Amino acid sequence: MRAYNLTHLRELESESMFVLREVAAQFERPVLLFSGGKDSIVVSHLARKAFWPAPIPFKLMHVDTGHNFSEAIEYRDWWVKEIGATLVVASVQDSIDKGRVVEEKGYNASRNVLQTTTLLDAIEENKFDCAIGGARRDEEKARAKERFFSHRDEFGQWDPKNQRPELWNIFNGRKHIGEHFRVFPISNWTEMDVWQYILLEKIPLPSLYFTHTRKVFMRDGVIYSMSDFMKLKPEEKEQEMVVRFRTVGDMTCTGAVLSEASSVEDIIAEVAAARTTERGSRQDDKRSEAAMEDRKKQGYF
Amino acid sequence: MELLRFTTAGSVDDGKSTLIGRLLYDSKSIFQDQLEAIEHTSRQRGEETVNLALLTDGLRAEREQGITIDVAYRYFATPKRKFIIADTPGHIQYTRNMVTGASTANLAIILVDARNGVVEQTRRHSFIASLLEIPHIVVCINKMDLMNWDEDVFEKIKSDYTSFAAKLDVRDIHFIPISALKGDNVVDPSQNMLWYNGSTLLYLLENIHIASDANHIDARFPVQYVVRPYSDKYHDYRGYAGRIAGGIFRPGDEVEILPSGFSSKIKSIDTFEGPLAEAFPPMSVCITLEDDIDISRGDMIVRKNNKPEMSQDVDMMICWMNDRPLQLNGKYALKHTTRDARCVVKDIKYKMDISTMHRLTDDKNLGRNDIGRITIRTTVPLLFDSYRKNRITGSIILIDEATNETVGAGMIV
Hints:
The complex is a heterodimer.
Chain A: H1 8-26, E1 30-33, H2 38-51, E2 59-64, H3 70-82, E3 87-91, H4 92-97, H5 115-125, E4 130-132, E5 149-152, E6 180-183, H6 191-201, E7 212-219, E8 222-225, E9 239-245, E10 256-258, H7 264-273, H8 291-297
Parallel strand pairs in A: 1-2, 1-4, 2-3, 4-6
Antiparallel strand pairs in A: 5-6, 7-8, 7-9, 9-10
Helix pairs in contact in A: 1-2, 6-7
Chain B: E1 2-9, H1 16-26, H2 32-44, H3 60-65, E2 72-77, E3 81-87, H4 95-102, E4 107-113, H5 120-131, E5 136-142, H6 151-165, E6 172-177, H7 201-207, E7 220-222, E8 225-227, E9 239-243, E10 254-258, E11 263-270, E12 284-289, E13 300-303, E14 309-320, E15 331-336, E16 339-353, E17 358-360, E18 371-384, E19 395-399, E20 406-412
């Protein structure tokens, strides 16, 4: 008798597809938050598989800080076309111009925090009732208790002490008017699962993830890409390094790692040997130990 | 590589967080920055050694109070398997969290403090594990280092547990003497308990047979979403997307659609990669039928000669999860497979004393963390199996219609 079992990647894939179909069935206007990073790329790939041969029944939305890597934007526009999806762009610059938010000042100024307002405004304007994200529970301590279906009140806030219990694979997406949900289809995936799946499915990625020579500078032990958005301090200097990025976020808070990994196989070998979590190179979490929890409560994704 | 989901249960101070920390640490699943963070905190608190329990402390409130208050999910992998741990808290408010963690688990680790033996909490945890039909139970007798690694202590607890567990519906129980603090029999075999010839905890987790945990006999396919491309290429395509909840489906199978009762044949089982020759749990697929029948979300595709029950009256065990107690004659929204309905609570038969496993027929007040047996009547017929037969088609959640909170977890009897 043959054994009827799936590999861990196929089981995770099936679970994520189930979650995405629940979203399409339970919500009127869901949207998939797309950053151009590998996690949201994987989620959009899963969405394509979940509804095939029909197109993905919701739009993709990019919250654009204006501080992007150009490679990420090129990839975004190409990928959206490739999977036959529709893209909405919500711009932080617009929020600044409208006076909704005030830009941070100083050398470490980042638009990371401002994204939250832009995101919540866009959700309200477009009447989205569910925002699908690529967050994983293994990323960070505060995310370990996040539900697949995460309820947000009318202010977009997350209440970690009062989450709905989530049992079996029954997802409760009921809500009052003005409230919305965040749904995380790849909650149960680890960084390694994501990379192994990218390899298995041959999913194309932005070039940033692979080794390249780049003009960079060092600040507080982090390697930053040179960009128009960050001013060098007097003691800092531009240099060239062979690097890649483990995550794709804003240029102002995403650090590079020294790496010669030129293929997904190389990256998997590197991740397997890695001694720091991928968020170790994200400055936004280091501001305080409970940084992520604080931002999530306010509606960060 | 397979995936094993397990849950951990233990009372306060049984060393559960230490055990999980030990599994993560010894299987090299902890990263440098995580280790630095807990080393830093341990030093700040004036602790002598690195407190592995801190690895699994999540939210700020817990860090402040030093207790775990909600289910947290942890991940690690060995070359053999990937593991998902549903880490549930051990204090009083614990039943609803353990039920939540247990609902998706193939295996439960129940921790017993070697100094205390089988206590009330052990019985509660074991009852919940059996109620939730977790197929495998591993009783870890912890803190053996504090009992001089004494074999008699282990054997006594093992025999106490075995005689009490005879009353439970548990199919597969294992016992392991461990010290989570020192690492004995967690990942590496103990040098202090050479009298123990069984496997270490990790070895058991890596090798326990889980492939037959799902129901491969009774074919059940709850329709989740209707796929209609409306494109030139797939003009008349009408597919039924869902996840196989039981049995094995193949093209050509004679099927019946419930609740309508129409018959048809499976034309194809489609995926993005192409059609499949067969589909089994827990695969997510898209099924097409030979005949044009009106089918929508909440319907179920089953084999002709093997049908689930179809009824508006449903008997179940329920774990209550909300501060507002269950109301007799109260109306609730419910979710069962992919079906939404409403129901009224017709009868509360008894409350379960989960420490003694007595049925309290004169106490019918089901508050938060209580478990009892009830009967509901639903607005539309549900298509269900007993929870014992199928954990997917046998489970229900009740929802408060005013607050939309999930208030009850039901297991159909």
